[in-house]
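Researcher: We plan to redesign the surface later, but first we want a full-length starting point. Tokens attached.
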């Protein structure tokens, strides 16, 4: 089955996606038709109006599955498996041009040089304002202000077109012409030529989208991919040459050299001053450090005249336009079928970003579920849900208390002088209750799901067994309410996870600690539910029972308990959900088996498919328990809401 799902994943997912759309349309149309033709005497507010509606159940389930297929990009992968690889090559070209694009006002509002000018001039103004609190003499202040003015002139020297040297202009023109030539190549249908034999062989052996450790194949696999991959190589070389271009005109460099010497001389003179307090010395050091940093950033040569990059910007805009044109229907497919993210190309791999990354695809999740459901594979050495052959004696040891053997008359036998032990009735009973006898083997459920299920059922059972009677008597007895209410209300608001470390420390990582924690959770809920049900019993019914001569026990069994059942059963439904959540958290803190343990290991390994598999398993188990409780409620209190 696993191989079949893997091989025909695309057609299966595509068919299911279309079937879900058709199912939703049919269910909505059927529901509207039913509303027009159905006759009902039930008024608004009557619970009978909420009965039935199975077609809306189908609609809701289909809608959730449709969203999952859509936003996980599983439908996109089914209808166009090569789309991700093509988007990977497209992003290679876009990423290759980012060093140039970051300098131009394309994705940002300002030129990079403009932003640098604004920042450096603001920094210079702040430094000039700090002069008054640095204890400089009038002569020193004038010298410092002159340095600030010269730095502003140096910035002007970098932005003035008359000082831009011819070699820099030539390099800008070369970059522009190379981008223009690349745009023409991209528009050519024959570019970059027929793929080589090595490229064809690689494309034939390339893994499909999602079939390998790397989610998206990195090497191009289609003619469109070859074109963008080849263009990305050329664009990367162009960007590498562009970032080497600096503003190195002689006028600007001369101003920078003069400023360096003036700042160094002024700094040396200021450090020679004596009698200054420590704070003032520190503030002066910060002042000169600020001047040096501004000069260093200006000297980096990333500021050019305002119109120097216009030609490159025009050429890059044309390249971006041609890039979008060459994508053709690919960009529309991405906008329609791959919402909530994009494909990003790294240095040696491509990855999904957005909902396609963190929301595993249903087909992959199903494949993972089938794989770990195989008892021979399982997860971390244990099956998900299977069985093991265990001796019947272990079942006896688990159910029958060991102390029973102490009630048998006589003493346990002792060995004789020859080391021989002759068993008697007492030892035989002891061997039986401890399971120490040869017995046949019986199949017993085992696995992560079974371990979690047993823990929840055990904790819930003891919580109901002790919580319901106590809650009923707290609702009937002044002593019980006054004595137990502070204890219950003291620990009930505390989150279960706050108790978990303490309980696990006391009991260890075995099942008894987890069961006791679940018991605490269920016990408080059941006490409150039963107490609320007992105190909410209609007083007229109790008076009627008294008048008919009923005893206290009869009133409790025939009046109070039936009237409390709706609250008690609702409490059980709530306790089940809280117990599951608490158990998973407890198994994540300490455990070697269980659904929580599986999810914790998957979380550490960032295995999202396993995480979603555990979520689905928990949801299905919760739904199963809830359906069972609905059946119990329907059979136990069918009169609810009809009084």
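Model: Full-length starting sequence:
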């Amino acid at each position: 089955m696993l191989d079949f799902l893997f091989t025909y994943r695309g057609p299966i997912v595509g068919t299911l996606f279309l079937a879900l759309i058709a199912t939703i349309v049919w269910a909505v149309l059927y529901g509207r038709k039913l509303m027009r033709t159905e006759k009902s005497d039930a008024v608004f507010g009557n619970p009978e109006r909420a009965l039935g509606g199975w077609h809306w159940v189908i609609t809701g389930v289909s809608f959730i599955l449709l969203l999952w297929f859509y936003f996980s990009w599983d439908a996109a992968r089914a209808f166009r498996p090569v789309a991700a690889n093509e988007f990977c090559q497209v992003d290679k070209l876009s990423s290759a041009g980012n060093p140039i694009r970051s300098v131009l006002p394309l994705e940002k509002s300002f030129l990079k040089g403009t932003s640098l000018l604004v920042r450096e001039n603001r920094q210079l103004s702040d430094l000039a304002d700090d002069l008054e609190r640095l204890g400089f003499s009038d002569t020193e202040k004038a010298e410092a202000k002159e340095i600030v003015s010269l730095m502003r002139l140096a910035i002007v020297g970098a932005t003035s077109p008359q000082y831009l040297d011819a070699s820099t202009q030539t390099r800008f023109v070369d970059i522009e012409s190379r981008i223009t030539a690349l745009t023409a190549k991209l528009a050519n249908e024959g570019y970059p030529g027929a793929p080589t034999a090595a490229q064809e062989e690689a494309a034939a052996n390339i893994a499909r989208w999602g079939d390998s450790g790397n989610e998206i194949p990195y090497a191009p696999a289609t003619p469109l991919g070859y074109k963008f991959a080849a263009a990305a190589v050329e664009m990367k070389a162009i960007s590498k040459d562009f970032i080497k271009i600096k503003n190195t005109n002689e006028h600007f460099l001369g101003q920078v050299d003069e400023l360096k010497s003036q700042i160094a001389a002024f700094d040396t003179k200021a450090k020679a001053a004596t009698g200054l307090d420590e704070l003032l010395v520190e503030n002066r050091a910060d002042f000169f450090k600020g001047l040096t940093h501004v000069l260093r950033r200006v000297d980096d040569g990333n500021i050019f005249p305002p119109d120097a990059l216009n030609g490159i910007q025009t050429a890059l805009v044309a390249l971006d336009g041609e890039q979008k044109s060459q994508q053709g229907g690919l960009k529309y497919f991405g906008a329609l079928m791959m919402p909530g993210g994009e494909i990003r190309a790294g240095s040696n791999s491509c990855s999904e970003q957005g909902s396609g990354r963190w929301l595993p695809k249903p087909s992959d999740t199903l494949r993972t579920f089938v794989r770990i459901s195989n008892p021979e594979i399982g997860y971390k050495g244990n099956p998900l849900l299977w069985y093991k052959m265990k001796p019947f004696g272990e079942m006896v040891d688990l159910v029958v208390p060991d102390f029973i053997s102490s009630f048998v008359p006589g003493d346990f036998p002792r060995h004789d002088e020859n080391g021989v032990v002759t068993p008697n009735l007492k030892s035989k009973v002891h061997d039986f209750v401890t399971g120490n006898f040869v017995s046949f083997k019986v199949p017993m459920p085992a696995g992560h799901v079974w371990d979690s299920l047993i823990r929840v059922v055990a904790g819930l059972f003891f919580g109901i067994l002790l919580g319901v009677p106590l809650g009923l008597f707290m609702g009937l007895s002044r002593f019980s309410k006054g004595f137990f209410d502070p204890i219950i209300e003291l620990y009930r608001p505390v989150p279960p996870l706050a108790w978990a470390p303490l309980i696990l420390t006391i009991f260890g990582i075995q099942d008894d600690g987890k069961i006791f924690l679940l018991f605490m959770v269920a016990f408080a809920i059941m006490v409150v539910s039963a107490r609320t049900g007992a105190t909410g019993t209609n007083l007229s019914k109790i008076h009627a029972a008294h008048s008919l001569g009923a005893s206290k026990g009869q009133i409790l069994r025939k009046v109070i308990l039936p009237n409390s059942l709706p609250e008690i059963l609702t409490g059980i439904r709530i306790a089940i959900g809280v117990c599951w959540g608490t158990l998973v958290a407890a198994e994540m803190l300490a455990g070697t088996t269980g659904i929580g343990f599986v999810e914790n290991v998957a979380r550490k390994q960032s295995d999202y498919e396993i995480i979603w598999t555990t979520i689905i398993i928990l949801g299905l188990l919760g739904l199963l328990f809830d359906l069972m409780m609905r059946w119990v409620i329907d059979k136990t209190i069918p009169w609810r809401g009809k009084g």
